[in-house]
């Protein structure tokens, strides 16, 4: 991370006093014990207490905090619920941590337009809970949905087990209220399906807090499908399970969700949740179909046939909503279940083409033997979004570093086969130094120019995403040869 600015550290009392003037009462935390609660996000291997924590309750307070920090050259790290797994909310020793947990109200629900307007501190699951009595729900459902906030979902472009059919956060957000580092309040998108002009909304979703602070989100809500049924399909080999996934999609079938777990994950989840998973298989697919009852019945038959042709050793269809929920309960509890079998684990994500699943899973097994660390595989198989969990013990010298090296090789493998570094966890600190594996220096410079357009002083969440963050003036330099600039006929701004 960037070296702390000694001048800012020396001004700590002044900064805390200014924050208290903007956010009175209990909205400012500066005691060391209180700061400890904010020293890390879900990537707990990295810890750093912030300079001060500020918990505003209104958009106006957010704008005033940002404007003061901009005027006084103080860095700001936005934070939602702290469930990020890439270190995206890792604080700075010389920065204000801007927590948005108190902006937690549902502002409007419009069933006719099928939208909900919420503040960023509202949890993902709370949106569905608020609309389910009227037969609606919010489709993106990360495994952390009981805790993760919608603002964090926007920052990381979160997905979940149903993103295969219904898309990621970016496909379900219609508009945001965004506060710039200068304190200006902007509205991007709105209540309609399309907006005129540049797609700045698409730029902000997934920007990891580098461009602005979201203080309001308009999301799409969907009617509950008439029928939803799930299949548990067991395989004797993980490679044949991967081949089954590829063939289902190739057949033109788009399930609502399609997840895979390997043997270690199956056993860990079953011991934790008792979902009724088969324990004599090497891989388990959970496939959910939703829609009209006749369509679901037909597609279940199609998928069963494809599974049998790929050597499935067990197939079980849910007979009730309760049984379907139990199938998913094990999958959604896979991450905490891993904590029962290992002192620590490193949960990461990378995305690959579906057709490369069998090869990548095999090569991941080779890497596991090479590094001497176990890996549990739980992932969104339908869209190739891997979530390997590398098991290690932080109390053993060198094991964290070995786990990180193992994870880096998995991500290099993802890029090698035509995939990308992340599907929904974001880049943050975790993947920052791997960005050159996927992007050229020109690519990275262009991305940094976008950052500079929103945040010229580089005060918002610095140290994240970019392996080498240039000053904006450096990115604006051009080559001058013989006293002549390139394309002299173009106007210069």
Automatic annotation (TrEMBL):
Cofactor names = FAD
Which Pfam families would you find in this protein's record? FAD-oxidase_C, FAD_binding_4
Q: Which InterPro entries did the record assign?
A: FAD-bd_oxidored_4_C, FAD-bd_PCMH, FAD-bd_PCMH-like_sf, FAD-bd_PCMH_sub2, FAD-linked_Oxase-like_C, FAD-linked_OxidoTrans_Type4, Oxid_FAD_bind_N, Vanillyl_alc_oxidase_C-sub2
Q: What is its EC number?
A: 1.1.3.15
**What GO molecular-function term can you cite, just one?**
(S)-2-hydroxy-acid oxidase activity
Keyword hit for Lyase: no
Which part of the chain is the FAD-binding PCMH-type domain?
A: 46-224
Q: Which UniProt keywords apply?
A: FAD, Flavoprotein, Oxidoreductase
Q: What class of enzyme is it?
A: oxidoreductase
Q: Please list the coiled coil stretches.
A: none
Q: What is this protein called?
A: Glycolate oxidase
